[in-house]
Amino acid sequence: MDIERALSGCTGFQWDQGNSLKSWLKHRVARQEAEQVFFINPVFFDDEPHSEHELRFLAFGIIEEGRHLVVAFTIRELYIRIISARAMNRKEKEVYEKTQTNPQV
Q1: Which CATH class is domain 3-101?
Q2: Alpha-carbon dihedral 55, 56, 62, 66, rounded to 10 degrees
Q3: pLDDT tens-digit profile of 28-84?
Q4: Centroid of chain to Cα 4
Q5: DSSP per residue over 67-82, as a string?
Q6: Residue 40 has what DSSP assignment?
Q7: In whole angstroms, what is the distance from residue 29 CA to residue 21 CA?
C-alpha cells in the first residue's frame, strides 16, 4: 500500500478511548502530540508484525516540543486511527535521523 497516498485521502483522526488513555498514562503522550507527528516531517513504515488482522503502520516524527515519537496507526475509512503513541527508543531515533539526512533510507 502506498501509505502517503492513502493518508492524503484521510479527513481526520480517530481514537479508541482505551488506547488514548493508555498512551497518556503509560507514555505521557497526549492526543494532540501524537497527531502532530503526521504534520512535521513524518517517516512511515509498515508494521508487518502487527498487521495480521488489518494493515498497520508506524509514523516516526518530532513534535513542536522536540520530542521524538512513534505512533502506531491504521487507516479505517477516511480516518487515521491511532493505536498507540510513545517516545522513540535510541535505535528508532537513529533510524529517524538517518532518514532526515538521507531520504532514500
Answers
A1: alpha beta
A2: 160
A3: 999 999 999 999 999 999 988 777 888 999 999 999 999 999 999 999 999 999 999
A4: 12
A5: -EEEEEEEEETTEEEE
A6: S
A7: 9
